[in-house]
Amino acid sequence: xxxxxxxxxxxxxxxxxxxxxxxxxxxxxxxxxxxxxxxxxxxxxxxxxxxxxxxxxxxxxxxxxxxxxxxxxxxxxxxxxxxxxxxxxxxxxxxxxxxxxxxxxxxxxxxxxxxxxxxxxxxxxxxxxxxxxxxxxxxxxxxxxxxxxxxxxxxxxxxxxxxxxxxxxxxxxxxxxxxxxxxxxxxxxxxxxxxxxxxxxxxxxxxxxxxxxxxxxxxxxxxxxxxxxxxxxxxxxxxxxxxxxxxxxxxxxxxxxxxxxxxxxxxxxxxxxxxxxxxxxxxxxxxxxxxxxxxxxxxxxxxxxxxxxxxxxxxxxxxxxxxxxxxxxxxxxxxxxxxxxxxxxxxxxxxxxxxxxxxxxxxxxxxxxxxxxxxxxxxxxxxxxxxxx
Length: 389
Prior knowledge:
Layout: H1 2-17, H2 25-32, E1 42-43, E2 56-57, H3 61-70, E3 82-83, E4 95-99, H4 110-114, E5 129-139, E6 142-147, E7 152-154, E8 158-160, E9 170-172, E10 179-183, E11 187-190, E12 199-204, E13 209-212, E14 214-218, E15 221-227, E16 230-233, E17 237-240, E18 254-259, E19 264-269, E20 272-278, E21 291-294, E22 297-306, E23 313-325, E24 328-332, E25 348-350, H5 352-361, E26 367-371
Parallel strand pairs: 1-2, 5-23, 18-26, 24-25
Antiparallel strand pairs: 3-9, 4-5, 4-8, 5-6, 6-7, 9-20, 10-13, 10-17, 11-12, 14-15, 15-16, 18-19, 19-20, 21-26, 22-23, 23-24
């Protein structure tokens, strides 16, 4: 009997020291502040607590999560609701040959080409001379190409057009929760905004997709928060901010937004982002004009050229072309892979796969909304010609 009484006294003593199931407002604020009551407490399960939790301390992982939430990083961090379009969009029924920068003779027949007797046009010197061919013939140790325009050229006049690994943007199954973008080149993140901030030791590579949770200014630059403790200079990312409002003048809930500053294209259907990618728009003097336009014609393929001798180019079978502002068009670009950087004479260059997807989605009359959030692109109409690739 004595042993039983002693056991009951011991249990009652323990119960007096256990934390209460109910805490006062002062106690709750103390728990959030990390003040442990005299009775003791335990660390809460990881989470973000709006009010003081009952009977535990919101410290450790919970404190870190709360700090992340205060700067825009949610819990849990979910992946983008995005997926790649079908890889078959990258396929083309054309084969390309890049002509030497000094140009090359064309021949009206294979016999003329074998005899090296030019009997066709001669290209001006240019870095952008591309033709598409339908047949390759090897004879007498030389190789000749029959072009789709029926002329022949010699293999010594250039090289086969080679593609880098194809780049494709993203389709979205639901609206993204925050901004996102593609890394433009190899870059190491910082642990805080600013060029003087220590490096994180984490390197990001071209075409890598990152989410953007916050933006801050430091050292006269904008910095993007792409992960807990990781900030990158905004110039290293081609950014997309999903639109929450319809541009003035757009009707029907469908439009293509071209962002000249970020070098991105975002596609909206039923007022919702459905596709986004990187692009290459006009360089200085050949700017892509800001404004609201409509697709006026669609062509599966187009030969594009500029006959000005000091700015000559010739590009056969430019695929998936959609004109929206005089000679400025959205189209595929097989001659470069520098999406995310201005490259064109005013057109909006897209990868082959992206241009094909957009061509299938878009209709004549759809809106093309060209913007420059930096206001660096001139708007004076007298500065714009008709435009070109």
